[in-house]
Structure formats: structure tokens, C-alpha cells
Amino acid sequence: MATFIDQVKEMGVKQAVIAKSDEAVERLTAGMNIGDIRAALRGDEPRRPNPRLRPHADGFWLHIRPSFYHNEITRVYPTFHLGWLSTFMFVWETITGIFLMIFYTPSPLIAYSNMWNILSNVPLGQLMRNMHRLGAEVMVLVVALHMLRTFVTGSYKKPRQFTWVTGMLLLVLTLLLSFSGYLLPWDQLSYWALTVFLSGAESAPAPPIVNQNILLILQGGPSLGAGGLLRWYLLHVLLMPLLLGIFFFVHYYKVVLHGFSLPPGREEIGEDTAKRVPKNERTYFIPDILTSEVMWVSLLSLLLVAGSLWFWDAPLEHHADPVVTPLHVVAPWYLSWSQGWLKLAPKTIVIGFIPALMVAFIVMPYFEVGKSRRYADRRVGLSVAMLFIAFMMVSNWMGTPRFRVQSSPDMEVATKLLPQEGVSPILGIPPDYLWEGEYLPGQVIDGNPHLTYGLEVFAEEMAKHSCTNYPGTTIGSITLDNCEEGDHRMPDPYATLTITPVQQNLMRITIGIEALDPENTDEYLYSLDWVGYRHADSNYEEECTFINKSC
Amino acid sequence: MQVKVAIGTIALMMTMVIFGYSALREPARLESFTNAELGRSIETGASLFAGNCSNCHGINGKAEECYDLASGEQIGCQGLPLNYQQLLCGDNTERMVAMNWQGSKEAFIQSTISSGRPGTVMPTWSEEFGGPMRPDQIRNLANFVLNWETDELCSGPVITFEWPETVEDFVAQFPDGDAANGKALFVTYGCSGCHGVPDEGVAPAVGPDLSVIAETGATRVEGQTAEQYVYHSVLYPSDFIAPDCPTGPCSGPPSAMPANFPLRMAPNPQDLRDIMAYLFGS
Are B106 and B143 within one domain? Predict the structure, then answer.
């Protein structure tokens, strides 16, 4: 082997550098030099022996990837690239997560200030946090769709049952990863979401001593505090990613071992030809699959980054407060179905049903042993799946705030306008438009569209929760319904919104609602003074611009 | 495939452009979030103040208008004014100097809220010292109190008054006291918060009963008339510790009674004349 000096002597500096670079590239790619890469990108036929197979044979990164796929599975259908995108989301979460880890300490004393520090003192901190949080939700979605696709195309059938088992474990781990991250900001949202989760664990159908000890382990002490936060942090950054990584490799190893299942209509019933791909039906990994994968990843990255910057903002509520329970505690959307179920059955049954359902899903391929993967032969199975999806969607809807237990009507109105957490049409009024004074719902304020809009929403909310004994009465421009027997709405209420200055740049906003008892006009049926504060710098008006925080 | 390479490349470049755009606007965004953090802390502080502190320090922090938190009835303020020049103005405020505090103003206020003021009705608020509040709540409260510092509050001149040694010299400088106004002032200065309302039989909560001070005042310090004793004790409460607080002998020195009346009354020394007129029934 000639040294570099010899090469320079022989070919001159330019040619020697080119030759050396070529050699370096060939080593890095485990077999493809610059010319091979350019030929691959141009779409030329490979030279012989085919250098595009060598990265699979000799390289680490591609040794687990097949060197060619069947043409039929390289299109969007049947895979929708969901497996690859799930993998990418895990990498995405790891990278953004490591960034956030640098600025985070798992202690109730400082975790919440860390969140504000990430927002107010770390360059690109808000973007990274939004990317991580949005990524977590997208990952849940992608993984769930991946599972749905696998079911629909019958790809869990023999010999891929065990792949399905590991996939189910990965789905559960994804949900747990997403949920365990929920607690870390140590705000009201985290604290109460986890408290509800733990109260579920406590009412599992098991002897009290078991439940109590599980609860003790999960919350790290008699109540959720420093110990619990540290445990959930370690679960989130250590144990769960580790388990997910391990099962990912098992899962993918099985995928490659059995080959990618072809579209159900492509093979004879009971046949599995995934491992026998005729030469003329092959699509090689390099360059076609690789460029396709990179393209999908680039597109998803673009969507996630743009979404995190302009359309979606990770919530951060007030500091966790064990003494103050927010009026409505809502589970994240991907667990909302469980809140819906709690309205259908006693807690113990629901909590017992969830692991039972998980086990049923895991063992399903060993019981559902119909040979055909074709849709026409699986009418019952697909119908059951559709019914289950419909059931889950209805359950999810039942778990949303729309279907929650209502508190008193005056509180509903007050907390809608001045919520304990999050933004609202009133909080979203820019400070310059927060004019001192006392206003009525529906009042139109000249030259103040923001306050006018807030008062309009006030009128709508009042009308929704009010009725009248004097037909034709209006709130703003909305005519009230007549009161009926046993009506839980407020009869002919009087409501005001008062804005008073408290300090420099600080306004007190008071919602006053009064309704007399029609049967005994000396007594108030409803009487509420609900106070909120708004500092000029709090910047709620900007939060309102994100679509997940509408005002 | 070429199309895919092109789409992927464009998407990646657009992502990078978005990152770059986002990085360019970071300084402004960081500042806006720094302000937002303080703003929201002050909002939470305002709500904590209304629910825990306003019954002693007054609803606007001036220790003039206090309402019982449970019943909503107006009561005398037991606390010191916080929306107050001597507490807030400057980096080393007069109150910090008086208390011999060496640290920052923020730390002074946080520390006072956390550990309370021993010997007075100000309790410890931090859970670290047995109180009900978490550290973040103490910070929110301190931020709220500090937000009272305005140019308007601090630009006014500090009015001082050379209080005469004896009550006779003081009386000689001012017209006769107005007992009715004195009674109102007895509430707004917060005296009634500790001493009750003597002529209405409202029992004192913390300090000595003043309903009979015209007689007992003369017996307290040898050589002092009741008037001189009261006059001196309002201005320098720690000089004589009374033996008859509701729960036994009064604590001190230092007395639980605030020592800042010479300053608080300096703009209107006549107020003391009125209050004494009320106490001595003339």
C-alpha cells in the first residue's frame, strides 16, 4: 500500500487527495466510494460486484436492514411507512429529550422554575420543549396507527405472532413513556393527571395490601412528592427508553427474520412468500428505500418543527399545588378513553379491565388463527376491529371535558372566562385593551374589539347556563330559554365583569354572578364573585395564537 | 427516486430555515418570557396576598383597610404598611437599615415572609419553618409586594418630623385634637387591630387595653403623666413594656408594637394629637 507521500509523488497533490478521500468514504460507508454513491443517486445500474450490498454485509448501521425489499411493499400502501416513522419518533424524542435533560432537575423545589428557565433563558428552549411534547403525542399516534395497519393487513398472523407481541409491548411502553413525561414539569396539569392515574392504581382489583404497596412505590411515599417525581423521572429517562430500545430490536429483528408481509391479495392463501423475492421484483435498499426513508423523515421533521413553532404550544400551568384541585382534571387525549370508561363502570372493574384487554391483545394472534390474510375472508375480524375503534372513539369523546361532570352553572361560567389554568377570551385581551370599569355580558365597547369579544363570549356562556321566568328576556343579544321544572340553570341572573387596577401593570378581573331564588326572593340561589388577575407582561394574548390553546 | 431526493432536500432545507428564523427571534422571545414569568408570579402573588395577607396589611397594602377573611367584616389592621416608601424605595431601604439587614431587598422580603417577625403577630409562612406556604408561593408573594414600588411612590420626598421630647412641647405646636377623627385614625393606623376599640368595649387582641389608659398611664413610669407615657410609647414602643397584655405581661423589648410611627405620622403629626384626644376622651 502506497503511502500518501508516494501517491502525491506519483499522481500530484490533487489526484492524491481525491484518491485518499475516495478511500475514506469507502471506509465510512463500509464499501461504497464516491463514484458508487454518485452512481446510486443518479439511478445508474451498480457495477459488479455490487458495492451497494457491502454496507449491509460489512457495515454496522445497515447490517440489520434487508438489502432489498419486494416492490409491492415499497409504496405507501401497505405499510404507510408507519414502522419507520415510529422508529424515527423515538430518535426524535431522544434527541430533544437529551436537550431538555440538560436544563432539568427532578426536584419539586426547582423543577417548575426549570421549566420557566427553559422558556425564558435557554435559546431555542421553547421550540425544543414544544418539539419534544408534540413529538410525544405524534409518536403515540404513529405507533397506534402502525398497530392498526398491522391488524388490518393481517400481518400478525403466523409466522409473525411474536412480532405482534413485541409490538404490543412497544405500544404500551410508548403510552407509558409519554405519560411518565407528563409529571416532570411539576405543574398543576402534571400533578393532578398523575394523581388521577395513581388513584386508579389504588383501586385495582387486588387485595388492599397489594394496591397500597404499589401506590407507595409509584408515588414514592405516602403522598406524591419529591420521591415520586424522582421515580417517574427515572422511569421516563432511563427504564422505559431502555425497555423500549430492547423490545425495538427484538421487534425489528423478527420483522427482518420473517420478511415484510406482502399486501394480502398478492399471495396465495396460507402462503408466505415474503422471504422469496424474485430478482425482477426487488427494490434495493440502496438507493431507493434509503432515499425514500430519508424523504419521509425530512417531511415529518418539517411538519414537527413548523408545528412546534407556529401552531402548537406545550402547556405549562401553575406550580403543582396539592391543596388546590383544578375544577376539571382531564387526562391526555390518548388516555381519555379510560376517563370515558369510568363513566360506564365502577373504577375497580375499569382498572381491572385495562390489563385484561392488554393481555387479550397480546395473545390475540395465537387464538385468531384463520389462515387467510385477505380482507374478504376476515369480515368478522375486521368488523370487530371497526366496532372496537368506534367504541374507543366514543369512549375518548366521553372522557373529554364536554362530557364531564358539571359543577354549578355560575362556576362553569366563571371558570370558562377566568380559568384556574390556561387561557380564555378574557385573559387573552391585550393589556392595553383591559379598560378599567364595570361591564355587562354582551356589552359593546366602542374602539375595543377585544373586550367586546370577551363580553360576547361572556353573554354566550351566561345564556348557555341561564333560563328565564319572564319570556323574552335577553343577555346581550341572546334570548334566554324559559325555565322549566327542575331546571339546573340560573334563573334570570345578573352578571358583571369588573376590571380594577391593583398595582402597576396588574389588573383584577372580577366576574360577579347573582341569581335570586324565584320561590324566595330574599335569598340568592347563586351568588359568586370570581376573581382573576392579569399582569400586563403575562403574555396570554400570544398564547392564544396557538391552535391548541384557543381563546 | 430523484423526485424523492429533491423533496427530502427541500424539506430539510426548509426545516433549517425555520430553525434559523426561530433563532433570530430568540432574544426578543426570551425577554418576553422572562417578563411573562414575573408577570404570572405577580398574578399568583396577588391572589395569595388577597387570601392570606390582606386582613392584616390591608387590601391595598397600606394597612388602612382590612377585612376579616372569613366574615368579610372590616377590622383594624394589625400589620405594617407594605405599599410603603420606607419598605420599598431604593436598593437599601430605610426599613432594611432599621432592621440591620445586609442582603438584597428581595431576600429581605422573602425572608420576612418565610420566617415571620418574632414577637409580633406576623407568623412564619414558609413550610420550612412550620408555616403553610411552599417556597414558590413565598417568591410569588415577594414579587407581588415588590411590584408596589413605583416612581410615584418613591419620587415623593421623605417627610420627617422632629418629634419634641415632651408631650407639652408637642401639644403646644398643634391645635386641639379631634376625638372623632382620632377614632377613625385609630382604625386606619391599625391601632385597633391590637388594642381593640376602647370606647366600644371591643377587647384588645394583642396589646394592652387602652380604655383606662388615662388612669393607668400615669402609674407606669415614675415622673411621667399619662399623656407623656402614651405620647412616648407611641413613638418609642420598646422603651417601656406594659405589664397588662391580654395573655399576660407584654413581650419585649423589643415591643411587638411597630416602631415606625414617628415616620408614618411625620406627614401629619396632628394625627397623634387626634388619637390622643380620642384615648383621653377630650
Answer: yes
Task: Tell me which chain B residues have a C-beta less than 8 angstroms from the C-beta of A320.
Answer: none
Same domain, B49 and B131: yes
The count of CB pairs under 8 A between chains A and B is 120
B-chain residues near A502 (CB < 8 A): 46, 60
The C-alpha cell that represents B195 in the structure block: 388594642
B142 and B186 in a common domain: no
Is B36 in contact with A537 (Cβ distance < 8 A)?
yes
Q: How far is B194 from chain A (nearest CA, A)?
A: 27
Amino acid occupying residue A510: T
Residue B271 lies in a domain: yes
Helix (H, G, I), strand (E, B) or coil at A207: coil
How many structural domains comprise chain B?
A: 2
Domain, as residue range, for B258: 167-279
On chain A, the residues whose CB falls within 8 A of the CB of B2 are: 43
The full length of chain A comes to 551
DSSP β-bridge partners for residue A501: A507
Q: How far is B147 from chain A (nearest CA, A)?
A: 7
Of B127, B155, B183, the residue at which a domain comes to its end is B155
CA gap A508, A531 in Å, rounded:
7
B162 located within any domain? no
Residue showing cell 394625627: B271
Task: Measure CB to CB from residue A295 to each of B4, B135, B144 and give the nearest one.
Answer: B4
Q: Residue B265 carries which DSSP code?
A: T
Residue B100's alpha-carbon distances to B95, B96, B139, in angstroms, are 8, 6, 22
Whether B14 and A302 lie within 8 Å, measured CB to CB: yes
B69 touches chain A (CB under 8 A): no
Residue among A113, A502, A539 whose CB faces B32 most closely: A539
Q: Based on the domain organization, do B175 and B252 belong to the same domain?
A: yes
Same domain, B151 and B183: no
- Domain end, chosen from B93, B121, B155, is at B155
- Angle of helix A34-42 relative to helix A13-28, nearest 10 degrees, comes to 70
CATH numbers and ranges of domains, chain A = 1-32 (no CATH), 80-402 (1.20.810.10), 409-549 (no CATH)
Are A122 and A299 spatial neighbours (Cβ–Cβ below 8 Å)? Answer: no
Domain assignment present for residue B2? The answer is no
Residue for cell digits 412641647?
Answer: B169
Cα-to-chain-centroid distance, residue A329: 17
User: Are B149 and B189 in a shared domain?
Assistant: no
Closest to A32 (Cα-Cα) out of A296, A290, A294, A297? A290
The domain that contains B79 carries what CATH number? 1.10.760.10
With an 8 Å Cβ cutoff, are A295 and B134 in contact? no
Backbone angles phi, psi at A344, to 5 degrees: -100, -30
Lookup result for grid cell 359568586: A528
Question: For residue A330, which phi and psi values (nearest 5 degrees)?
Answer: -120, 135
pLDDT tens digits for chain B (282 residues)? 889 999 999 999 999 999 999 999 999 999 999 999 999 999 999 999 999 999 999 999 988 888 999 998 888 788 888 998 889 998 998 889 888 899 999 999 999 999 998 777 899 999 999 999 999 999 999 999 999 999 988 987 777 788 888 888 888 888 888 888 888 888 888 788 788 888 787 778 788 888 888 788 778 787 788 888 888 888 888 888 888 888 778 877 777 787 788 888 888 888 888 898 888 875
Q: What is the ipTM of this complex?
A: 0.91
3-state per-residue secondary structure call for A79-120: HCCHHHHHHHHHHHHHHHHHHHHCCCCCCCCCHHHHHHHHHH
| Chain A residue closest in CA terms to B48 | A533
Residues B146 and B184 placed together within one structural domain of the fold: no
CB atoms within 10 A of CB A229: 25
CA distance B10 to chain A (A): 9
Q: Examine the domain organization and report whether B142 and B174 are in the same domain.
A: no
